[in-house]
Amino acid sequence: MQHVPYGYKIQNGKAVIDQSAASQLRELYRAYLSGLSLSNAAKKAGIKGYHSSISRRLTNKRYLGDEYYPRLIEDDTFKRAEAERLRRAQMLGRIREPSSKEESIKRFRFSMPTPEQVYNDPFKQAEYAYSLIESEVIQVGAE
Question: What is the pLDDT of residue 1?
Fold first, then answer.
């Protein structure tokens, strides 16, 4: 069974807007866009939750409406909240760009001389053959 997003309830197998929760959710967006922190915006809206759950509510695209869920939040409000969230994260240094590490690709060259000994035991012959294998690491770009 799937979780029903905050602001909706299921009636007769369809998602409908829970007016009380929807008004709290709209207030959460308004308070966050007015400059309050996530937790303070949630307190003002009367929503209890942890920082991560409140953040997920601000980024849940289902609030824009789809084939199952009716629209709860306008596109403009959702986009402004996302832009504000990214701006705050950037300001606080919480957006980390992946460091560009040089790819360390190691290439190997293998060589094996012709075996000089022959054993009747196939396992012993295989052990001997594998012991003759020589490898060397090739620098990338060299050859």
Answer: 40
